[in-house]
Design goal:
By secondary structure, the protein is of the alpha+beta class. Helix content is 40%, strand content 24%.
């Protein structure tokens, strides 16, 4: 985790304590972020519900520090399945 994005991880973990969070700067401007979150809190939720959970947590930062986000969400089982190889 890049220290400059610890605030994003902290915000997400405040609402989803078991989350594994990966934040990447997509453009070099530090305000267009690719955020991957792995949590069993997503179990049984549709993709839009998973993303809505994150957008609700990040809403204040989206008004100020973050201009755009690309979200990827996984349950732990789906993440393990997607990353076998």
């Amino acid at each position: 985790m890049n220290n400059e994005f610890e605030f994003v991880e902290s915000i997400i973990k405040s609402g989803i304590p078991d989350a594994m969070v990966l934040v990447e700067d997509m453009t070099g401007t530090k305000d267009h972020l690719a955020i991957t979150v792995v949590s069993d809190a997503f179990e049984g939720k549709m993709l839009f519900q998973q993303h809505q959970m994150l957008m609700n947590l990040l809403k204040d930062e989206l008004k100020t520090r973050i201009h755009a986000v690309k979200l990827e969400t996984f349950t732990k089982a789906k993440y393990d399945q997607a990353n076998k190889g």
